[in-house]
Every structure is written in C-alpha cells, then in structure tokens.
Amino acid sequence: MTPAKKKGRVFSGARPTGRQHLGNYLGAIKNYVALQDEYEDTIYCIVDIHALTTVETTKEIRQNTYEMALDWLAAGMRPEDSMIFVQSHVPEVLELHTFLSMVTPLGKLTDLPTFKEKIRHQPHNINYGLVGYPVLMAADITLYKAIVVPVGIDQAPHLEFTREIVRSFNYRYKTDVLIEPQMKGTKIPKVLGIDGENKMSKSLNNHIELASSPDETTKRVMQMVTDPQRARRADPGNPDVCNVFTMHKIFSSDEEVEMINTECRRAGIGCVDCKKIFAKNLNDDLAPFRERRAKLDEEPAEVWDVLIDGGKRAREVAKQTLSEVKDAIGLP
Ligand code: SF4
Is 289 exposed, middle or buried (0-12, 13-18, 19+ CB in 10 A)? Predict the structure, then answer.
C-alpha cells in the first residue's frame, strides 16, 4: 500500500537558467520529484522576476524558461501532482512583496552575505531588486503558505530570513496568517563541477548538461579533474579526494564502486578507464530522461500549457492568501 502523503505544501523556486545540469538535477530536481510522493501539495516555480535582478538582457529568458520546464517535466515533475508555473504569471507575489518590505529592516538586507557577494559580482548594477531579493523570496514562499522549502545550503540564510519576516509581520499585525516555513536540506548539498573544485555551475562552464548527447557527455566526463596527486597512470590514486569517485557512488553499482575504490589505490585502474565507466553509467541513467525530453520538445505548446495552467492554479491560492493578508493589515 502506498503510504499516505503528508499534509501541507512544499514550495521551491529556481531561476530560469535554461538547460539544467547535473548539479541542478542532484541538488534540487531529484528532490522535487521525490517530494511529490511525500507531500499532498507541491509547488514549483520558475522565478523569472528574480532573474531580472542580475540579467541585463531578457533576450533569452523565454527560451530559458521553456528549456528548464522541459527538463523538469522530463525528470519526473508531474503537473497532475504539482503546480509548476512561472513567477510572473502570479503578479500577487509583487503585492505581497511590498507588504512584507514594510516589516523588513533595510540594514538586515544589506548585511546579508549573499547581498554582499552579489554587489561584488556586479558593482556596476546594484539595483533595488538586489537588496529586496530575500523579501521577494519570502513573498514567494508565504504566498502559498508553504510549510516546507527544499533549499541548498547557500539559500539557508534566506530561508531563515523569511522566517524572521513572517514573525515580524504576524507580530506587527497581531495575526497568524503567514506561516513560518521549515527548511529541508537536499541530500547532496554541493555537487562539484568538472574542475573538481567549484560548485557545478553554467557560469563557470564546469557543468554537464542533462540534455547533452551521450558523446558530448562522455567528452565532458573525460575532462573531469581527478586526484591531483595522481600524475601518472602508475601512481596510486586516492578516490576520497576525487570527484569522479563521488559521482561513481551515485551512478555506479556497488561492485563497481568497490572495485574502483580498491584498484585506484593500487594503480590497478587508470583514470581514463575509470571515467569511461562513469560516463557509460551516467548516459545509461539519463537515457530515459533524454527520450522523454525529446518527446516533450515535439509539442512546445503543451509545455507552455502546463506552465500556464500551473500559474492559474497557483493564482487561486495566491489571491486567497493576499486577501487574508490585507484583512490582517486592516486595509479597507
Ligand atoms: S582512478 Fe578514478 S577514482 Fe581514482 S583518481 Fe582516477 S578517476 Fe579518480
């Protein structure tokens, strides 16, 4: 018998970054898919308004939204179980953002390490949206009264901040209309890129795209940095410091992991062969995803329909919350 789903809503949002990579898949998407079976309500949003804080051209935002939705759907996110939509399709979020901004101290926003990092990255474009980013994120979550938010470790301070904003709002207006969400950490908090050093990311070009062809994937895997101490084939390696081995633990069989763990340490296997095994297992794992993606891509209108329908359903929830929020504030 399938276990009963837990009550309550899960919310998560991600910026429209286009084709997703292995880091997105292991760090977020797999979790999103699993949570659909765990909770009654799951809400997943492509946060295009957030993206405007850092992008200087919106030329690719539509295509990136589409590509991302394709990946989400192909990976097993189900519109019949989840509301999957685009943030800007629910404009109520902007209204709630404004109300929440009134209970948010400016000094706290400018003190957040994530804000400081952003202004280091784009000193030429320190816009208001950048400062208000965590408030908009709080609006995203609280608009749907989510109780659980799956986030990566880098977003943890923002979620804590959302909880503070909720407390301030409820205290100021003597209400309990907004809910303090709980964080749900992902099983794999940090997926390293092929450089073996930094978190996998498109901007660092150290990523492996889910939708790439098997050949392209193999090519990327062959570029992966391994144990830096292992300069020659005859040198024994240390799998504990090698990102290829970390990936084997996710995608390869127990027997293969055991064999590599032993053979690498006594130079019984070379890095080239080790990577070939990983590339094959990764491609085998992604084959059904790629097949589903290609099929979905034959009917782009249906993908957009999923997003539009998700937006309509999300908007119903949003309108209800916003009405309660206005009542709590005492607006006429
Ligand atoms: S053999 Fe495999 S685990 Fe060992 S260093 Fe090379 S790539 Fe890493």
Answer: middle
Q: Determine the distance separating the centroid of ligand 1 and the alpha carbon of 245, expressed in angstroms.
A: 6
Q: What global pTM score does this model have?
A: 0.93
In 3-state terms, what secondary structure has residue 135? Answer: helix
Per-residue pLDDT of 29-76, as tens digits, reads 999 999 999 999 999 999 999 999 887 778 899 999 999 999 999 999
Residues with CB under 6 A from ligand 1: 226-227, 230, 237, 239, 242, 244-245, 260, 264, 269, 271, 274-275
Q: How far apart are CA 73 and CA 287, in angstroms?
A: 15
Nearest CA to ligand 1 atom 1: 271
User: 6-191+300-329 maps to which CATH number?
Assistant: 3.40.50.620
3-state helix vs strand vs coil in the chain, percent to 5: 55, 10, 35
DSSP 3-state of 307: helix
Domain 214-294 coded CATH 1.10.240.10: yes
Strand, coil or helix: what is 146?
A: coil
Question: Ligand 1 mean position to 224 CA, how many Å?
Answer: 10
Q: Can you point out the beta strands (E) in the chain?
A: 6-14, 39-46, 82-86, 148-151, 182-185
Question: Helix, strand or coil for residue 157?
Answer: helix
Distance 37 CA to ligand 1 centre (A): 36
Partners of 9 in beta bridges: 41
Is 199's pLDDT higher than 80?
A: yes
Q: Indicate the helix (H) or strand (E) that contains 254.
A: helix 254-265
CA of 36 to the centre of ligand 1 (A): 36
Q: Are 186 and 27 in contact (CB under 8 A)?
A: yes
Q: What percent of the chain has pLDDT over 70?
A: 99
Query: Domain extents for the chain?
Result: 6-191+300-329, 214-294
Tell me the pLDDT tens digit for each residue of 134-172: 999 999 999 999 999 998 777 788 899 999 999 999 999
**pLDDT value of position 1:** 65
Dist. CA 223–CA 200, nearest whole Å = 14
Q: For the chain, how many residues are written?
A: 332
